[in-house]
Amino acid sequence: MARPRVRLGDLSVGFVQPLADALHSLGHDPEPLLRRYGLDAQRLAEAGARLSIPRYMHLGHAAIELSGEMGLGLYMGRLSRLAQAGLAGVTAAQAPTVGEAARTLLRFEPLYAANYRGHSGFYEDAHGAWLRFYSISPYNGYNRFVVDSLLTGWLAQLSGLAGVTLQAERLEIEFEAPPYAAAYAPLSATPVQFGAAGNQLRLSRATLGVINPLHCPSTWQHLLQLCEAELAQRTRVRSLGERITHLLGPLLNGGREPDLEEVAQHLHMPTWTLRRKLADEGTRFRDLLNDTRRDLAETYIRDTELAFGEIAYLLGFASAEAFQRAFKRWTSLTPGEFRRSQRRVG
Predict the structure, then answer these.
(1) Using H for helix, E for strand and C for coil, what is the string for 294-308?
(2) What does the domain layout of the chain look like in residue ranges?
(3) What is the bridge-based pairing of β-strands 170-173 and 193-194?
(4) Which residues have C-beta within 8 Å of that of residue 171, sequence separation ≥ 6?
(5) 19-29: b or e for each residue (b if 16 or more CB lie within 10 Å)?
(6) Could you tell me if 148 and 22 are in contact, meaning their C-beta atoms sit under 8 angstroms apart?
(7) Is 254's pLDDT higher than 80?
């Protein structure tokens, strides 16, 4: 039986709307660009329609080129609305407070976006909460817009719910300060920390407690039930091997590969139990790791413009040379030969 292919991820076509609105606000007609990517009015109005992550990245790249605005993601974020996150966003819009809205939006992220690199999180403590977006490093002028649009978008969406403009207590961004760094100043009450360990913003306890004037308790509970049911459907996996494949993406990064012991800890089971259960399914951890790396490598080479050294980093190889040797072993082609063959086919 053929193994399932690993995908880089996808997201709701609702994310195209703030991009189009941002282009329009900058004096550009977005329609020709959207049509080039197959995103006509009919496609954008299709219930549950999703856009692949590589296609979204290419679209963002093209939009930045069209507008000449490297900070396009900040414009997109300011124009974001909760409804663009689909059922999860509509549910968040009925939450009783800003804090519950933020928790809901991030908890049900799989309903509107899925990325093999990780998932966002809401981390609350006695004094406030962090809203955290996962790493998509390495960064360049054409993928920073994703981080910019998400972090700015969270603030804009929650401000829309509260009816007042909200600021983060702190804003931390993984990449170094870009040329448009001054444009981040209105987002945070304190100076933005660039070159941070992660991408996150912090909301104070007072901000989390801001009341949603449009909250309806019965509608809120009904929408939560719908979200829980859809989340269970989307996240259902059929085997232990599939669960491990889903775990490996965020763990593969930075020139290191996860081992069996690390994965066993994430699954909360002894290493020997994990090894035995995989044997019962007719597979081994090393086979799953190699299959996942191969699938992701082929996808990155075919669907992105990433350099091979960057792909090696994303897949946990110690060097580009080690990645190229492994890829040749898997496919009998070098990464360069594979990319050229795919472009001939395309």
Answers:
(1) HHHHHHHHHHCCCCH
(2) 71-233, 240-345
(3) parallel
(4) 151, 184, 187, 188, 190, 192, 193, 200, 201, 202
(5) bbbbbeeeebe
(6) no
(7) no
240-345: which CATH topology? Arc Repressor Mutant, subunit A (1.10.10)
pLDDT band at 248 (very low <50, low <70, confident <90, very high): confident
What predicted TM-score, i.e. pTM, was given to this entire model? 0.85
Residue of 194, 239, 214 whose CA lies nearest to 98:
214
Mean pLDDT, rounded, of the chain: 92
